Amino acid sequence: MNPRRSRPVSPRRPAGVHCGRSHLLQCPPRPGEERLARRGREHALARAIEQPGSYLALQVSDLFRERGLRDAQRVGRPAEVSVLGERERVPQMPRLHDHPFIHRKYRHPACHIFCWMTGPPPTVMAPMTTTPNSDVNDTVFVLVHGAWHGSWQWAATQRALAGLGAASLAVDMPGHGFDVPLPSGYLLPGQPALLTEKSQLAAVTMDDCADAVLDTLRRVRRYGRVVLVSHSAGGGPASLAAERAPELVDRIVYLSAFVPVGRPRFFDYLSTSENATARGQGLNLGDPEALGAVRINPLSPDPAYVEELRQTHYHDTPVDRFDRWRSALSPDLPLAIPTTPITLTAARWGRIPRTFLRCAQDRALAPAARDLMIAEADRAMPGEPFTVHTLPSSHSPFAARPRELAEALVR
């Protein structure tokens, strides 16, 4: 590349950011900065600095970028860089004991390649307070939503997971998400026939939902560690998927979710005396058997109904934000999800390490019912007992506390 034809440097370049482009010839390093990039021979243009307790800092040239620098990992001496699937040795430089700081990657606004930053970190790049597991960079979280929700519920949690270095993929089960058909009068004035119109989701089965989860698990098995996370009613399809293909799951996490071990149907736990204190008993509309679905009305014009919906599922979410959340909810939960019995075995589901995330302020699933599920599962299949953690949240921590939820998942 001809250095005279370089692009101008963005005026927003943070202090200490360097990349391998020749336009830096026009940008001398500022005081206290260390220019890491250089040009050299054609096939491996890079230099490395390693400092105790820091990440390996690399700067790459245009040619290196064009050839596809895939990863810069924390490695021993001499440093190794993966280029197009091959490993190349990079000469180890002397330690720079006076180097002020080495931290995260930054996408340079002028050349749009990833660079490493030196110097004091800008506030926007502040590190997370929780130290994730050492293998989080090779972990993918498969996220399964609960009743009336969809993959969209996990968006803020996925951003927080990405900040911790973890990949994630959220599933839309059949009968959920923005593509699902609504009752014909749901969006009309007065919502005609909402109490009686049979749901278009009545034919959705538990097998359909488990197959959607399995399809996602197969697609992400290339990761070193796959964690299956389910919320609420999503625990049924997630458990069935894990039972059918335990080799695809390295850990299963229940976020205040149904565990079908002691009792095979979600309704079996919802109807126990332990769950008698749960709120939301009056939210269901019509006859579920006749409708083919458990129907609610998130767009109800009745303020008392809307407030009960918020107090049951989202009481720690501000009222104005809850209005946005409820507008995205689907009114119908296919009846098969809470009513289909699920059989799990110790040889398959029972061999997967499992975690239960309790929501301390949960009002949709009573604490006694939640603890009953955990105790019955551990008693029936003691080989991998539940690891239990508690979040100080409502039934929906992905709405009010997505960062805390992400930190609990990578713990």
Strand order of the largest sheet: 9-8-10-11-14-15
Biggest β-sheet strands, sense, barrel: 6 strands, parallel
Overall average pLDDT: 77
Q: What's the alpha carbon Rg, rounded to whole Å? A: 26 Å
Structural class, judged by helices and strands? alpha/beta
Strand percentage lies at: 15-25%
Order of helices and strands: EEHEEEEEEHEHEHEHHEHHEHEHEHH
Q: How many beta-strand runs?
A: 15
> Percent of residues in helical segments?
10-25%
Number of H- or I-type helical stretches: 12
Uncertain residue ranges: 3-132
Would you kindly provide a written description of the structure presented here, covering whatever features stand out?
This protein has helices at residues 62-67, 155-163, 206-219, 235-244, 266-270, 288-291, 303-313, 319-328, 336-339, 367-380, 397-400, 402-410; strands at 46-49, 57-60, 69-71, 80-83, 86-89, 102-107, 114-118, 139-144, 167-171, 225-231, 251-255, 293-295, 332-334, 354-359, 387-391. A hairpin with an 8-residue loop joins strand 3 and strand 4. The protein is α/β, with parallel strands linked by helices. Helices cover 24% and strands 17% of the residues. The strands form 5 sheets. Strands 9-8-10-11-14-15 form a 6-stranded parallel β-sheet, with helices on both faces. The protein has a 3-stranded antiparallel β-sheet with strand order 3-4-5. Strands 1-2 form a two-stranded antiparallel sheet.
